[in-house]
Design goal:
four-stranded antiparallel β-sheet, single chain, alpha+beta, 60% helix
Length: 153
């Protein structure tokens, strides 16, 4: 009887994966790893960058140019390790801690807020064996204040 239970449990897990439903325990683990790596300055794995991200740089750079993004960043998780890459319009490629620092520089005071909003989406993508790829367009805050200032007067 125990054998039938494991077979049923395995079949149920397989069906959930096929329907795009993620394993809640795996999702919690991924979320914890992302929070540690991205919000708590945790260590990231260069070997994971080389294994999963490095070969796609040209593809993401082409997408950045086509979408006219200011930068694109990609995050992955595998076997308890996190890696990220940030690509800029001049094809500067920053990896892991350097990418995290540049992202924090771009987003300044909104870094934690933005990542707290993005981490659930990252978890969904990563739990479904996809990479999290995000192109970003920035807004000039001085221009924005001037436009809003005119609208209010």
């Amino acid at each position: 009887m125990a054998y039938g239970f494991f077979l049923t449990a395995g079949l149920l897990e397989f069906m959930n994966l096929m329907c795009g439903r993620r394993n809640p325990l795996m999702s919690k683990k991924i979320e914890s790893l992302l929070r540690k790596a991205l919000l708590e300055d945790g260590e990231m794995a260069h070997s994971l960058y080389e294994y999963e991200l490095e070969e796609h740089i040209d593809y993401w750079y082409d997408g950045l140019k086509a979408d006219r993004d200011d930068f694109v960043f990609v995050v992955t998780e595998n076997s308890g390790h996190v890696a990220m890459v940030l690509i800029m319009p001049d094809k500067t490629v920053l990896v892991n801690e350097a990418a995290r620092a540049k992202l924090a520089e771009f987003w300044q005071n909104n870094y934690s807020l933005n990542l707290n909003r993005l981490i659930p989406t990252m978890v969904d993508e990563l739990a479904n064996d996809s990479l999290f790829v995000n192109g970003v367009k920035t807004v000039d805050h001085k221009l924005l204040k001037r436009v809003w200032g005119k609208a209010r007067s």
